[in-house]
């Protein structure tokens, strides 16, 4: 039996699809104008992660962000995530991470996070 698509799930998915950057829970809740309660958003995001629809990104500060799986296959998220120190936006980078491990080691998950300044904020500084 498949999972039921509810109005709340569709609303969360629509917001994630409309954003070029990953969103934290609070940003999602603000964009939904509190039409979906906080606990429901958490449940939906966890379900989406389990189903490979979105992936969870944990920042260097421990904050969780969620991005729609566009360039990944829903299971392997072996790419860098970039957080702008000025505008705070988190974006998935498209280039894959390559790690040379010793023989018999196998990567199960990668959480690579880089902080700096996005092109837009860097331009504003000039």
From TrEMBL:
Binds 1 zinc ion per subunit. GO terms for molecular function: DNA-binding transcription factor activity; transcription cis-regulatory region binding; zinc ion binding. One of its GO terms (biological process) is negative regulation of DNA-templated transcription. This is Transcriptional regulator. It holds the Pfam family FUR. Fe cation binds at residue 95. PANTHER family: FERRIC UPTAKE REGULATION PROTEIN, ZINC UPTAKE REGULATION PROTEIN. Keywords: Iron, Metal-binding, Zinc. Zn(2+) binds at residues 84, 87, 118, 121. Its cofactor is Zn(2+); Mn(2+); Fe(2+).
């Amino acid at each position: 039996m498949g999972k039921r698509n509810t109005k709340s799930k569709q609303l969360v998915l629509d917001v994630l699809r409309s954003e070029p950057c990953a969103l934290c829970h609070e940003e999602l809740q603000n964009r939904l104008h509190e039409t979906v309660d906080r606990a429901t958003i958490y449940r939906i995001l966890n379900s989406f992660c389990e189903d490979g629809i979105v992936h969870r990104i944990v920042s260097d500060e421990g904050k969780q962000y969620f991005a729609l799986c566009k360039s990944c296959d829903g299971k392997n998220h072996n790419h860098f995530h970039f957080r702008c120190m000025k505008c705070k936006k988190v974006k998935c980078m498209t280039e894959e991470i390559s790690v040379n491990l010793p023989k018999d080691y196998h990567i199960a998950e990668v959480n690579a996070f880089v902080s700096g300044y996005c092109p837009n904020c860097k331009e504003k500084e000039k």
